[in-house]
Structures are given as C-alpha cells and as structure tokens.
C-alpha cells in the first residue's frame, strides 16, 4: 500500500507542476543520411520512397531516391540462354553480406526472381525456369488458391516501380504429390507454377535460371560461388522491400545432420552457418550457383531456424536435382495435353468450317437452280 500511495503522489505532483514524466531521452541519431537518404518532415515531398528502417532526428521520415542502377543500359541481349545475367557484370560478394543484415541487389542482377504476393503483400519467392514455368516451395502454396496469388517478374523494389516489372497470370500449379506439411525435414517441398501465357525471356530483367544436369546428385564440392536472394525478413536491419542477396557456402550433408539431429535427407542442400541467410518470406526462392558463367538452380529455399540468426544451424533447401524426373514429367505432361487440345480444337474448327462451306455451297446451288 505504501508503494501505491507513493506512486500516486508522484503522479499528482507531476500533473500539478506540468512536468513531463522522467524517462530515457529520445535517441539523437541519424542513420538515414549515412545511407544515402534525406530526412523530411512531410512524406508528400519524397520523390523516391520512405525507408522505415532508417532513423531521423525529431521523428522525421527518411526519404531515399528511387532505386536505380549505376551502370549504363547495355544493348538488348536478344538471347534466351538460361542462367545468363546480361544487365550488369556479376560481382563477388563478401561473406559478410546477407539477406538478414542486408546488401541490396542491383536491378537485373537476378532476372529469374519471382515475387509471390497475396492481399497481405509478398509472402514467398520463386524461380523462372522456362518461358512458362516457375519453381517454388510446396509449403508456399498450401492453404492458397490461385485467384488470391499474384506473380511479378522483373521485380526489384516492392514499392518503387521501374517499368521493367511484369504481372503474369497463373494457369495452374502442381505441388509434389508426396509433400506433407509438418513432417520432420519437410521433404518433397517443391512445386511448379504454370503461367497462362509464355513470357519473353530474352530481355535483361526477365530471364531463366538453368536446371541442373540430370546426373548430378551431390553438390557438396560446390562451395564458393552460390547465391540466395529474396524479399524476406531482414530482422529489422535493412529495407526488405529492396531485393537482397547473399553469397553462401554449401555445407556437407553429414555436417548439417549433426546440427539438425538427423532431419537432413539426400534430397536437401544445406547452406550457410545460420547466423546469416534466408528468413521468413524468402521461402520458395532460388539457391543458384555460377557454373562456367551460367547460374544453375540447385536449391529451393525450404526451412531453417525461426530466429534466422542461430549460429551453427544452416538453412535448408530442396535439392532440385533430386526432383528433375518429376519436374520434366509434369512439364511434358502439360505440354502434351496442351498440344492434344490444340489438335482437337483445330480438327473441330476445320470440321465446322467444312460444314459451313458445304452448307453455303448447297445454298448457292439451290438458289441458282431456282432462279
């Protein structure tokens, strides 16, 4: 009772004296300007975009210019060779760069990136592997229906449009038939999305990643030139609306299994050390490796530690090579169905036209005979 009475007296004194409550001073910090922004007190004058993660003094807002590349626009590539980045010269990233912690990608740096959005915004990534097919994680599509999912190709910044984006429509999607949610290790976490119409894949900003060769079953030896990318959570250390990327190292399945207590299968790839890497919202996105100048899709972001910063717990990716027969069968089956339907429709239309022509011919003959 004495403590409660004391608190009441202090509050009464502060009210009557017109003094503010004691507490720590507001942070006198500016992280906006060092990151290339300008602090403004009116967001309507911000020509670019507001960076909610950068701080300004006096509760002002950090305004940053629209993201753009520092490189001049090169000639159109006019080639659809998979795995080629044609917009810029690929850099070799420092191991300290990461999605959680943030290094911004440049526009056109990962042209096979796909953003999956619903009414709440971006929720997963994907990889364009042909002019009509996308690979993503099966868990991204569970409890979703096609009409509520939007796909964007050529995306760079989730708020600032550069004019190189393309919204595409989903024809259908196929989750791996053996995928079951919440099974230890989450095997078979892969799905395919078919677009209604083929897209142009010979530009700088929308291109395809290569699929791995069919006889590749182990990539433990590939350890130096692999990358992940996405718009997933950065745990508050960067603006996740701007595409982030990371150079990652592949960990052996045996070492990874020691961390994850036996949940790792031969159909998994482990990358990183847990303190940097993928996070919520990066699921379904690509793990690509640069092989002789072409980027090959080796993994699909699947799962990891929820904190995204657990040292010693690598991120887990679905190994695409393990599912090549399934991928090829699904694509071939749908292409065959489309071709058969086309042939059936063509034959049907030809028969209708023959009937119409025959009817018109007989009508003309009848009219001539009665004239």
From TrEMBL:
- Give the source lineage, highest ranks first: Eukaryota, Metazoa, Spiralia, Lophotrochozoa, Mollusca
What InterPro entries does the record tag this protein with? Peptidase_S1_PA, Peptidase_S1_PA_chymotrypsin, Peptidase_S1A, Trypsin_dom, TRYPSIN_HIS, TRYPSIN_SER
Positions of the Peptidase S1 domain: 99-332
Task: Give yes or no: UniProt keyword Disulfide bond.
Answer: yes
- What Pfam families does the record tag this protein with? Trypsin
Q: Which domain of life is it from?
A: Eukaryota
The Gene Ontology terms for molecular function here are: serine-type endopeptidase activity
Q: What PANTHER family does the database record attribute to this sequence?
A: ACROSIN-RELATED (PTHR24252), HYALIN (PTHR24252:SF7)
PROSITE patterns in the cross-refs: TRYPSIN_DOM, TRYPSIN_HIS, TRYPSIN_SER
Name of the protein in its database record: Anionic trypsin-2
Q: Name one GO biological process term.
A: proteolysis
Q: Which residues form a coiled coil?
A: none
Alphabetical list of SUPFAM superfamilies matching this protein: Trypsin-like serine proteases
- State the signal peptide span: 1-20
Write the record's keywords in alphabetical order, separated by commas. Disulfide bond, Hydrolase, Protease, Serine protease, Signal
Keyword Amino-acid biosynthesis attributed: no
């Amino acid at each position: 009772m004495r403590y409660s009475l004391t608190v009441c007296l202090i509050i009464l004194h502060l009210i009557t004296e017109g003094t503010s409550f004691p507490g720590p001073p507001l942070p006198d910090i500016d992280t906006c300007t060092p990151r290339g922004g300008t602090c403004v007190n009116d967001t309507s004058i911000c020509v670019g975009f507001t960076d909610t993660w950068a701080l300004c003094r006096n509760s002002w807002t950090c305004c940053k210019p629209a993201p753009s590349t520092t490189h001049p626009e090169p000639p159109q590539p006019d080639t659809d060779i998979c795995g080629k980045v044609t917009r810029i010269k690929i850099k070799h990233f420092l191991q300290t760069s990461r999605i959680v912690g943030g290094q911004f990608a440049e526009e056109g740096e990962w042209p096979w990136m796909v953003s999956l959005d619903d009414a709440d915004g971006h929720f997963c990534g994907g990889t364009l592997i042909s002019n009509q097919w996308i690979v993503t994680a099966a868990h991204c599509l569970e409890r979703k229906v096609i009409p509520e999912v939007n796909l964007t190709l050529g995306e760079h910044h989730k708020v600032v449009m550069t004019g190189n984006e393309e919204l595409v429509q989903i024809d259908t999607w196929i989750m791996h038939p053996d995928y079951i949610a919440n099974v230890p290790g989450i095997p078979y976490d892969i799905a395919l999305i078919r677009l209604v119409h083929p897209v142009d894949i010979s530009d700088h900003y929308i291109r395809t990643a290569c699929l791995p060769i069919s006889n590749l079953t182990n990539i433990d030896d590939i350890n130096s030139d692999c990358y992940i990318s996405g718009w997933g959570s950065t745990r508050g250390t960067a603006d996740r609306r701007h595409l982030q990327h990371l150079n990652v190292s592949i960990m052996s399945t045996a070492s990874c299994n020691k961390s994850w207590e036996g949940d790792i299968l031969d159909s998994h790839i482990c990358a990183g050390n847990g303190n940097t890497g993928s996070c919520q919202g990066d699921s379904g996105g690509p793990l690509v490796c640069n092989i002789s100048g072409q980027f090959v899709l080796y993994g699909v972001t699947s799962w990891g530690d929820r904190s995204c910063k657990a040292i010693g717990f690598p991120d887990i990716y679905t190994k695409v090579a393990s599912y090549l027969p399934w991928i090829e069968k699904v694509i071939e089956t749908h292409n065959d169905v489309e071709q058969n339907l086309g042939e059936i429709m063509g034959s049907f239309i030809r028969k209708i036209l023959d009937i119409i022509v025959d009817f018109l011919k007989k009508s003309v003959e009848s009219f001539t005979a009665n004239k």
